[in-house]
Fold this sequence. Notes:
Helix content of chain A: 25-40%
Distance between the termini of chain A: 42 Å
Oligomer: heterodimer
Number of strands of chain B: 18
Radius of gyration of chain A: 15 Å
Largest interface: A-B, 42 and 50 residues
Amino acid sequence: MFGDDVNTDEIIPAQYLNTTDRSELARHCMEGIRKGFSEHTQRGDIIVAGKNFGCGSSREHAPIAIATCGISCVIAKSFARIFFRNSINIGLPIIESPEAAGKIRQGDHLAIDTGKGLIRNITRKESYAIEKYPPFMLKIITSGGLMGYTKKRKR
Amino acid sequence: MRYTITEKILLRHTREREIHPGKFVNAAVDLCLGNDITAPFAIEEFEKLNAKKVFDRRKVVLVPDHFTPSKDLKSANQAKRLADFAARYGIVNYFEVGRAGIEHVLLPELGLVLPGDLVIGADSHTCTYGALGAFSTGVGSTDLARAMATGECWFKVPESMKFVYHGRLKKWVGGKDLILHTIRDIGVDGALYKAMEFCGEIIERLPMDDRFAMANMAIEAGGKSGIFQPDALTLRFIKEIRTRPRKRIGQFLKSDPGSVYSQVREYDVSKLEPQVALPHLPSNVVPVGKAKSISIDQVVIGSCTNGRISDLRLAAKILKNKKVKSSTRLIVIPGTQKVYLQAVEEGLAKVFVEAGGVFLTPTCGPCLGGHCGILAEGERALATTNRNFVGRMGHLKSEVYLSNPAVAAASAVKGRIAHPDEVV
Lengths: 155, 424
């Protein structure tokens, strides 16, 4: 769980931007706001945050670090736009839902179905309706990201 | 249909018959840009496509400016990947150290962006070129990879927000203060996903360098872009570029009367004082008078926001025959080689050095905590840059304050945040 306006300097501080080694970026994920974050993440973990998550620079290192350290989805009240498009482009599921972000608590177990547009909170026996991805974005996601989409269009 | 300038530019770059906010479009880009941080990922993705060439050798721009002149081995390797890529694919607009500078100061100076253009850059401050009446926005490395291969990028057509500035600006108040004041008003996500259109009688008189500073910080309000309707000042700026690669002057578009805005905000800024953003958000803004007791360890004058010649002239005017306070460091960074040379020829560099400051080669350097002025634990900087996030310029327990170049120069003399009138 994170608060409002988490910026990309916090997600991956600039001193680590001199590499494209994904596992090294993952090691420093969230270091500017929560040191040691990546040591405790497991595949399938979900980040839940407040408004304007991912604000600041355009560094794709931020969603890459998050995805590589095992985070399977980010849910926030709102996202900064470059972070949002970067996540879609690399195939990191990302969900804007003020309701879900407001009601989910640390440690809750979630089941997310973006096709149906639903987050089920198994711990709290709640469910939150989420907006389905627009068809254009869904095409990118189902192509495995923007490069998959680009290859398809070329053909 | 009545269109805003942003909608007009986007429409002209698509095959659509009409567009409206919220619509997803694929658009042709006039220019795509990457730097030593973002281009390496883009190059990796580009190579996965097995593309034999870039879509247009003249329309891909690579500027190694963040960690250059390379600060360490890893950074050197990253920068080299740009040079190698540029050589392999015959990129015309690759700028090596010594012929380069901070990308968003460099591109307009060379005439690579013209009014009416559609530009993307894998750097969030790509929104700077809106000052020329272009639509330009920051994207990520994967977007850049696709654009390099196909010349296309996807967009969700943004709603536009209109900002109207009335009155007369006081002395020492400029574009930087207007944009800080605006971000304070709407917040760091106040223009999320939106195009910020700046107008009003103040804007009509506002010099180009101030317009660049304003458009540059649209992203700090969450904006997709910031834009000015090109006018006589824009035309003069473009005509003065001697090295312009294209003879044309671009397309001088205006928003149609009656076009739709999600919001219109009007400001009377006649009483506006120079503004200072306190840590740790660019929206945490107060008039300089309310920040005067804050001591400063380092002053940075430069960056893609305020590293242009008029910024350095302003700082030099205040620092002439003055000394930087003994407890404070002053770091001045011209935006490009051209600005550097101008500053030397006009005697500005001499003023900075005689005052006890350093005059560096163009680089993004300390703005993003890269190099050339990293803050130690507990240190505090006043900078003419654009972000004051936690740890932005160094240690997580350091602080960054943001201001215009005049306040920054005055503060270097006083060793604390100061109004320029206190020094001049």
